[in-house]
């Protein structure tokens, strides 16, 4: 229906003369008009047919206009139908009550034809705009849901089982789609690849860039390297590709890419501008695996280095994005790295419990439990 087209209008009044008068006036204006003689019949017709507007008398025997409004507004299928209530001059207090119950406007008996037409046109126009808005939002929601499902395909359906190790991940997007990603997979040389990244910005653009970055890293990591430089090669080539071909997007990603020798526990890694991963030692100390290069995608000539550390039995490695550290309380104070490290000092039964504890602490710090950024974590524990 456009503004100039006919509207489907339901007129409700217990007086047959009033119903007939309103019906004839609206029909002459080109509207499709149906009538109901009481509130019960009105609700039955609203649920059985589609209407663009309801003209509702307040005072009716049985179910009056108040109760009709009280039943319409909580109903998700009916609440969007605009309602014009009809009253006598001495019922203006009743009109106020109806407006509070959700009526759109009112008409005073005897009804003036000019006011009737103006209010009808105004309500139909507003409904048209609202319908278009709801349709647009529904389409956006559908697209975002499709994006969410597509993005989920870029994350591992399940983490690999590695003898002698416990591997766990946590993924908590702040919106329908996220800019974070994680992965764990076997490299061509047999080592276990551990990958976690965070694309700048949020929303659909970040999600698309996340898909590109993760795909490039996996593709280049799967290329056999004679010098076993899997993470360094993948990060370097991905950085060059993004910086050269997508510079105009001004997007980049921080990431941690490690290669673990399961037998020795030796971990070679590249930290491209990412928050330091945390290695929880057996003696209770914490070793921070600081960046070994800038964020990926900033400049094609960026240089990255490989660092190494050994994961001994009973030790845990935690890699996480800054969604947890950047959670803010009501005063704007960040949760921060120190609070994350404090949480990690408390022993946890397993890697999953460790990450759950960090997420709970960050949400508690935020106050309302809502995190404004994606929180993603990947943890591996070498069993004793």
Task: Describe the 3D structure.
The protein has 384 residues and is of the alpha/beta class. It folds into two domains: 8-145, Response regulator (Rossmann fold, 3-Layer(aba) Sandwich), CATH 3.40.50; 154-382, Phosphatase 2c, domain 1 (4-Layer Sandwich). The chain has helices at 16-28, 39-48, 65-72, 92-101, 113-152, 203-221, 230-245, 336-344, 351-366, and strands at 8-12, 32-36, 53-57, 83-87, 105-108, 165-172, 180-186, 192-199, 253-260, 266-272, 277-280, 286-289, 307-310, 316-320, 375-382. The strands form three sheets. The chain has a five-stranded parallel beta sheet, with helices on both faces. The radius of gyration is 31 Å and the shape is elongated. The protein starts with 7 loop residues before the first strand and ends with a strand. The relative contact order is 0.09. The mean pLDDT is 88.
Topology:
Blueprint: E1 8-12, H1 16-28, E2 32-36, H2 39-48, E3 53-57, H3 65-72, E4 83-87, H4 92-101, E5 105-108, H5 113-152, E6 165-172, E7 180-186, E8 192-199, H6 203-221, H7 230-245, E9 253-260, E10 266-272, E11 277-280, E12 286-289, E13 307-310, E14 316-320, H8 336-344, H9 351-366, E15 375-382
Parallel strand pairs: 1-2, 1-3, 3-4, 4-5
Antiparallel strand pairs: 6-15, 7-8, 8-9, 9-10, 10-13, 11-12, 11-14, 14-15
Order of neighbouring strands in the sheet with most strands: 2-1-3-4-5
CATH homology superfamily of the largest domain: PPM-type phosphatase domain
| Low-confidence region ranges | none
CATH class of the largest domain: Alpha Beta
Largest sheet: 5 strands, parallel
How many β-strands, per DSSP?
15
What is the level-2 CATH architecture name of the largest domain? 4-Layer Sandwich
- CATH fold assignment of the largest domain: Phosphatase 2c, domain 1
Strand content: 15-25%
Termini gap: 70 Å
Helix content percent band: 25-40%
Oligomer: single chain
Briefly note the structural class of the backbone.
alpha/beta
Radius of gyration based on Cα positions: 31 Å
Tell me the number of helical segments per DSSP (H or I, 4 or more residues long): 9
